Amino acid sequence: MKRLLLPFLTLFLALSAFSQNTSPLVYKDFMQKSNELIDMEQIPKKSWTDFDSNPICRIKVKAVGFEEDLMQKFIFVPNGIEITHMVFKNGQWLLHVSSRKNGELTIKYMGDYVFRLPYQLEAGKVYELTLGMETATLVINAVPTTAEIFIDGKKVGTGYGSAAVSVGTEHRYKVVCEDYIPEEDMIKTDKTEKIEKFVELKPNFGYITIKTEPSGADIFIDEMKTGVTPYQMKKIKPGTHVVELRKTGYENFAEMVTIKTGEVNKNLENVNLVKDKNYVEPVISQKPDNQTPKNQTVPAATTIQACKGVFSVDPNTKVQFSKGNLQYQASTNTWRFAEHQWDFIGKDNGNISSSYSGWIDLFGYGTGDEPTKTSDENSDYSPFNDWGNNLPDEEGRSWYTLSGDEWTYLFDERNTRFAMRFVKATVNGVKGVILFPDDWDPGKFFLKNVNSYEASFSDNKVSQISWNEKLEANGAVFLPSAGMRRGTSIKYVGYDGHYWSSTSVSGTGAYYMFFTEGNIMPATWYVRKNGRSVRLVRLVK
């Protein structure tokens, strides 16, 4: 009967002690270690008995949920019993105390925690007191939202992170993001509370603007191709860089530029390319009429607008993607596809207007013919399905935008030859998502963390040559992190990808596919007025 009462008595006394508790320490358990006895030779002989010549027992005090260095700060004050000897060893306190007595221990740590012995302890026996600790919540909000957040060395989120931390000690947080200066510091928690901290990282980049006459020159920065002129307000790391401009029929142009954090280098804003005197325009020969077979015409030149790969977007529909993101020039009402799959326009989208002579590639949602509006969320904005004649297709097929269900099927549900559907990567220096065609053979190019929403863009780095010769040549599609537009404010360029679907939600919202560091959402929705990328597809015959 006595054995049955002991657990209840322990709990009652622990709860009674809790009413006196002003410390964050909390009771977990108290038990006798039936298979352990005190090795008296390990302690001084004068400590074998208390002041009443009572033999001693041992209480092992251990803790869960906080570090050893905190435990070493404990101060023990006995009442009704005597502590004859104490030592901190192997992460716990060994207290040698009076047996056969009623009493209590007060543990001083950020207040008082009083533990009342539940019964008289037996001489020579070993007991174990387990304590826990109330915790505080540390929350970090970071800008940019792609920043990785670490608390006490452990990653807790991207853009937003939280962790339960022990009270009464300092905790280190660190926020890191590519192209930004990392920030780290210590935060001390003194009580059970929620501590929120906002961290805005300082950029570790400047900008460069490059314009040539004529335009269309390929830009190489430190021997890596980065775009085509005009090239306005593009991020570049601080320091000295070699910029080379190349255009067929013109002499190469090269110059050293120095980039300073937060500043725009405009030294190459007015470069007049010099014609190459040794360049000879190629001549395309044609068969004479008398060599053309009867009843056969010479085919007209065609422009290949579709990528090679074939992708299932539902069990019965297969499509090919356009060769690049959709682009528009308002001043001439001209549509085109980006030259390369990694190309995007970025901050120049902020110049959107009905007379803008540059190009844009972030459109509000809709099926109308007004891609230059920047407000009025109930209006239609960019042509998605009604403008097939604006972009020539070499085989006369129409282009259209995937629905929300088709984006979801593409990422999550389609069956492929080797169960590989997508992967995050950095292609030619641009972050984004690679889509594998249905017949993709992984032997063509090794990529890791396939089909993972939580993967990082830095997990796979693909050079321009590898992309051209091993991935694109075998049907892969790349969706760049082109950012998004709110009115004339351009956000998350180079970090997030926002791609419209053709599926609307009520009168003001629409579904789109979204990806960022650590996450992909094939079909989420928001207001129509925000500008997002458009990547078109055509049906496979």
- Helix percentage: under 10%
* Average pLDDT level: 83
Strand-residue proportion: 35-45%
The major beta sheet can be summarized as: 5 strands, mixed
The strands making up the biggest β-sheet line up spatially as 1-8-2-5-4
State the end-to-end distance. 84 Å
What is the domain tally?
A: 4
Task: Give me the Rg, rounded.
Answer: 35 Å
Number of strands: 38
What general form does the structure show? Answer: elongated
Low-confidence stretches: 1-19, 283-302, 367-390
Q: What count of helical segments does DSSP give?
A: 4
Helical/strand content category? mainly beta
List the helices and strands and how they pair.
Layout: H1 2-18, E1 25-37, E2 56-63, H2 68-71, E3 75-79, E4 83-89, E5 92-98, E6 104-108, E7 112-116, E8 125-133, E9 135-143, E10 148-151, E11 154-158, E12 160-166, E13 170-176, E14 180-181, E15 183-188, E16 194-200, E17 202-203, E18 206-213, E19 218-221, E20 224-228, E21 231-236, E22 239-246, E23 253-259, E24 264-272, E25 311-314, E26 317-321, E27 326-329, E28 334-337, H3 404-413, E29 422-427, E30 430-435, E31 461-462, H4 464-471, E32 477-480, E33 484-486, E34 489-491, E35 497-505, E36 509-516, E37 519-527, E38 537-539
Task: Quickly list its features.
mainly beta; Immunoglobulin-like; five-stranded mixed β-sheet; four-stranded antiparallel β-sheet; elongated; disordered N terminus
Descriptive notes:
The structure is a single chain. The longest helix is centred in the N-terminal third of the chain and has 17 residues, at about 1-20. The chain is mainly beta and about 550 residues long. About 5% of the residues lie in helices and about 40% in strands. Strands 1-8-2-5-4 form a 5-stranded mixed β-sheet, covered by helices on one side. Strands 11-10-13-15 form a 4-stranded antiparallel β-sheet, with no helix packed on it.
